[in-house]
Amino acid sequence: MPPVILKIALDVPINRLFDYLSGGFNAQLGNRVVVSFAGRNLIGIIVAISNQSDYPIEKLKAVSNVFDEVLIDSPSFKLLNFCADYYHYPLGQALISTLPLRLRQIKPAVSRKMFAYRLTENADMALVSPKKVVMQLMLTALQSKQEVTESELALISATWRKAIRELTRLNIVTAYEVTAVKASLPTSAVEPTLNVEQKKAIKCVLALTHNFKPWLLYGVTGSGKTEVYIQILQRVLSEKNAQGMGAQVLVLVPEINLTPQLEARFRSRLSQFPLVTLHSNLSESERLQNWLAASSGAAKIVIGTRLSVFTPMPQLKMIVMDEEHDGSYKQQDGMRYHARDVAMVRAKQLNIPIILGSATPSLETWFNATNQPADDQKTQQKQQYGLLTLAKRAVENAALPDIYCIDVAKSPTENGLSPLLVKALQERLTKSEQSLLFINRRGYAPVLHCNACQWVAPCTRCSARLVVHLSQKRLKCHHCGLEQKIPLQCPSCGNADMRPLGHATQRLEQTLQTLLPSARIARVDRDSMNNKNALTDLLTQVHNQEIDILVGTQMLAKGHDFPNLTLVGVIDLDGALYSPDFRAGERLFAQLMQVAGRAGRADKAGQVLIQTAFPQHALFNALRAQDYASFADELLQERRVMQFPPTCFFALLRAEANHFSLVGQFLNQALKIANDIKTDVMIYDPIRSQMERLKSMERAQVLLQANTRAALQRLLKEWMPKMRALPIATKVRWSLDIDPLEF
Ligand code: ADP
Ligand code: ZN
Ligand code: ZN
């Protein structure tokens, strides 16, 4: 009998598979195995089974164990193979990095049993001494909900297990096992009567559910996109295949913060279909359990963030990506994939539809949905996206907010706020309505400045300035985390008159407190919301009308509904209008639309006031008219002229090292090899990165620009192996970013 040779993918930075003998194990494709590699035991995945090897068979080692849960199915292999190729990333690392942590460990994939807890019927709370703080907190949690899960308890205290054991002993609490795919409780959620545009969108999508077809569902916040997803998915999920297996759907969301709301809505409306979520706030055992439920086909709906685009789902019949323009779909290290592009490839490979939803679609998507490229044979075969538009807000009398610019030249700001904005805040306060002030900078002030010599406090490790955090009397680098005390005198000239310059969330909060002493003000940024419950607690306070003014960063911009919020003030965003980053305008528009969407969502009209020195800027004109379409068309025109994506394709070769000379040598040698390759790709000279130094590393980059993805890939296929083989390539940290979002 010929030997069975397993081709194994390992999580090592070497771009190939490794041959091992099966060692008598009954091994199948997609199984996890344990192998000895360079003196260590590693987890690997069987990618192919053969009876041949390029190595002498007698020298091959046998695998030391096989875990026989079949894990990676062949469509997933196909997808990851594509990604490894397209992103030029080792297949083994790509494969293994998409698995839940527990599956990357050398253990069988048995998921631990999960429990939830509830109060017993005649629980006698008096048995717990008021001094037992953790137990009291558990009781409060248990009283507020029917059942509380392990991960919810774990958020309350690290010693929750001990407290729960004691409560169980006292017969106050009972535990019962829960499974990942518990069906949702049926609720009496009502289905709204759809408007004409919604009906049309649903009809279009449902007419073509058995083929690859990308759709853009374009509609402002509140226009009823989620309702459209729900009704489409209802139909898709109800279909069974010939074997009686029910369909699965994957719903991608940009951020963990947005999953609870969507999850609640899906659970109430699609309660007959088991649902799991996949995101990084889950405990590792929940994550494993949910992943296994998805890959076994038991979970019918998977709601997840970026990484979940790779979750094996044997019956996947549709992909929905909400807020498709969101930058967090792009992975910024390791395999630098964009979940939108991966989802698109996955849908194509499976021959299923994919719906991208947004109020401000990415220009990439907008281009695909509005431009049928002419006279290019190749691109004409590319599937044109269907464009589905929801132009109005779905709920009657929930009008879109009025948007005004406050010209800071005419109404000069004092401590960062113009009198017009303060007056508007005052009015809301009198009417007991809520306001939100949006400023995308946390801390007290962006710089510490010496009035005598103009010195500003720099980060010693990055080419960046230190941000003043006054309450902690510290200066912090928001890029590398460096912290130091605020100096009493200027280190450069000795002057003692050092001033924080500019505005950020903390300072604005302080200013407002002085101007409007009766207002109840809350700040929302990464510093104030550093524990997991803080944001949820704050949102509850806002809903209970315990807060008048919210001051915050983009954390506040997304997805939260505040029915009594009627004013949004936007401060200090002018920097983005004239930024060197060609995507800044697109991003700013999306961000402003999103914050504007917070105002007046119920039956109260909302108002958005933007403080700016450029009230006539085209971006604001489009925003006032809430006309993203024409703004996007204009941007596209610009991109075409400038030869920027999506009208062409970029890749970025980045390198960094302790000494700049190494970076320079590496990039120059890399370019030298490239010169010998025949290509239509434009290869630019090396330049310093926008952030020249980061965490004490000197950085530089080379931009590649091509008219087609194929041309770019042809070059890289030849270039990358040669680059990897350069001796200097091991002395610098370098990476390749295909379709980069940051420069
Ligand atoms: P989006 O996802 O575009 O922000 P939603 O689907 O969340 O919009 O809809 C916004 C609100 O309008 C929700 O409260 C939803 O229940 C409601 N809604 C959606 N469609 C309709 C409709 N046809 N009639 C009445 N209310 C609707
Ligand atoms: Zn000075
Ligand atoms: Zn720094």
Please provide a written account of the structure.
This protein is α/β, with parallel strands linked by helices and 743 residues long. The protein folds into 5 domains: 99 residues, 3-Layer(aba) Sandwich (GIY-YIG endonuclease), CATH 3.40.1440; 65 residues, Arc Repressor Mutant, subunit A (Orthogonal Bundle); 195 residues, Rossmann fold, CATH 3.40.50.300; 168 residues, Rossmann fold, CATH 3.40.50.300; 90 residues, Ribosomal protein S10 (Alpha-Beta Plaits), CATH 3.30.70. It is 30% helix and 22% strand. The chain has a 7-stranded parallel β-sheet with strand order 11-12-10-13-14-9-15, with helices on both faces. A hairpin with a 2-residue loop joins strand 3 and strand 4. Helix 1 packs across helix 10 and helix 19 packs across helix 20. The radius of gyration is 28 Å and the shape is globular. About 1% of the residues have low confidence. Adenosine-5'-diphosphate binds next to helix 7.
